[in-house]
Amino acid sequence: MTDKETVVLTRDVDIITIPDGAAGMLRQGMAVTIQQALGDSFTIITDYGHMVRIAGADADALGREVKPSQALILEDSAEAVEQNCWEAMRKVYDPEIPVNIVELGLVYYCKVTPTTASQYDVQVMMTLTAPGCGMGPVIQGDVERGIRALPGVGSVNVEVVLDPPWSRDMMSEVAKLQLGLY
Question: Is the peptide bond before 19 cis (omega within 30 degrees of 0)?
Fold first, then answer.
């Protein structure tokens, strides 16, 4: 979504403040401006100028419908589970940047290990755009929840590392084009 839209909240809604990642609540009747609606969340500017994040599960409070998940590969193989994990991570966005974390180059690797005939453990190593990012635990949690919900996934471990540090060179060509860096 590129056009900003002002809406009135139809009910109280839980939020996460940006950039510090603190939990809070906005009250029914408050006017808010949707800055971006990407992945499974909305980045909002409140009527008093604060930037917050609203989960996609609360889309109805914004007068929106919850987006259905994309189709998954349902075959039972490590390769299929890994591909589904990458697709799940492509739905995760830094709330201040309109590019998913995979295209931003924040995900260093995703390893899928079979534990039984139909269960897999998933290990993800990722970083943040800045070491002190208050949204880091929120983004990490989004990745973990998205992968944990996939068929065949037994356990998930998402590790945030700061070495090597992230740089713009890690972004895909698509991300650089989306952000106007060319």
Answer: yes
* Residue 27 CA, distance from chain mean position: 24
Tell me the sheet residues that pair with 122.
112, 156
> What number of H helices and E strands is found in the chain?
3, 9
Q: Which residue has the tokens 């208050």?
A: 134
Nearest 10 degrees: CA dihedral of 95, 132, 15, 142?
A: 60
pLDDT tens digit sequence for 124-167: 999 999 988 899 999 999 999 999 999 999 999 999 999 999 99
Closest CA to 37 of 103, 102, 93, 101: 93
Give the H/E segment covering residue 111: strand 107-114
50 to 32, 77, 137, 142, 155: CA distances (angstroms): 10, 45, 20, 22, 36
* Closest residue by Cα to residue 129 from 95, 90, 177, 87: 95
Query: Domains plus CATH for the chain?
Result: 5-62 (2.30.30.40), 78-178 (3.30.300.130)
Question: Residue 25 contacts by C-beta under 8 Å, 6 or more apart in sequence?
Answer: 12, 13, 14, 15
